[in-house]
Amino acid sequence: MAQPPAAAPAPGDTAATTAATAATTTTTTSTTPKAAKNAKAAVTLDAATVNAPGAPAVAPARADAASVLRAQILLNRARFSSGEIDAAFGSNVRQALSGYQRKMGLPATGVADAATWAALNAGAAAALVTYTITDADVAGPFVAIPQKMADKAKLSALGYSSVEEALGEKFHASPALLQRLNPGKNFSRAGEQIIVPNVLDTEPLPKASQIVVDKTDRTLTLMDGDGKPMAQFPVTTGSKHDPLPLGKWKVNGISKAPVFHYNPALFWDATAGDKKAKIPAGPNNPVGVAWVDLSKPHYGIHGTPVPASIGKTESHGCIRMTNWDVTTMMQSVGSGTAVLLKE
């Protein structure tokens, strides 16, 4: 299988910052001033509240945390990901809803109206479930991830920096959300029971005929043999310095747990004095847990050590996804799969 080449672009800031979010909780459900004010009286996030379908409240001006969280989980289970599950309405949730609506033949409004809510909830499993933390979950080793590439290269692996980060990735959620769902729980104790998003028992996707990356929407869509969408994920795509290479390409190969070859000469924002470095594999590797090599030299689709940034920042030309989304996506594609990168 192809490995990321020495010239492969990578995320701009590759520091593993996800663990830092574990110490911060928030009740904000929207970036609008009105919603920020209303967030002070946020709906309680517990299994009973989130698992009750109720009436939809998933729109920019009307987004209670329980409804948004339920929508994020059900969309994830339907393979229309909003990225990191955080109970907050934002652009990734809006795009996930729009993609799901297109699949279901509904108006693509990005708002969970009654028809969309009914479709999402039809035969739905519980959104939140109980999980017992295992010995493997807490075994580690957990180590602080340094900022500099040279220091990263000195480590034997770039694993998780905390059990909260590891559990967050396992359940596609922000560590802050897990803490909010489980006040007073000890995430470092095997046998502890916690409430988590129900995202682990989904069926694998069938093989896709094409990958479509939309620069404007910041989405990656898997198309079936009839040209219809069957899954969608938020992505980060390029920047003014390293624009997305628009056009038709194909998948050359897939690499799991890739090693990253850092070459500062290829990065406009490299720190002065940086030298080439071989960065070991792991979820906090600059390209995450997988590299899907494209026929455009030195470009690929890959994971990230910072899932909260997906769909909200820029990249060095490559297509960046959360580690769990790239893992799901790569199981549906293979060498020769068509790739369309468009505006």
Automatic annotation (TrEMBL):
Catalytic residues per the record? H302, C318
Q: Where is this region: Disordered?
A: 1-32
Q: Name one GO molecular function term.
A: transferase activity
Pfam families noted in UniProt: PG_binding_1, YkuD
Is this entry keyworded Cell wall biogenesis/degradation? yes
Entry GO CC: extracellular region
GO-annotated biological processes: cell wall organization; peptidoglycan-protein cross-linking; regulation of cell shape
Q: What positions belong to coiled-coil segments?
A: none
This one is known as: Murein L,D-transpeptidase
Q: Which PROSITE patterns match?
A: LD_TPASE
Among its keywords, does the record have GTP-binding? no
Q: Which UniProt keywords apply?
A: Cell shape, Cell wall biogenesis/degradation, Peptidoglycan synthesis, Transferase
Return the similarity comment: Belongs to the YkuD family.
What SUPFAM superfamilies does this protein's entry cite? Answer: L,D-transpeptidase catalytic domain-like, PGBD-like
Domain L,D-TPase catalytic: residue ranges: 209-342
Source species, please? Answer: Massilia glaciei
Q: Which pathway does the UniProt entry assign to this protein?
A: Cell wall biogenesis; peptidoglycan biosynthesis
> By its UniProt entry, which InterPro entries does this protein fall under?
LD-transpeptidase, LD_TPept_cat_dom, Peptidoglycan-bd-like, PGBD-like_sf, PGBDSf, Transpep_catalytic_dom
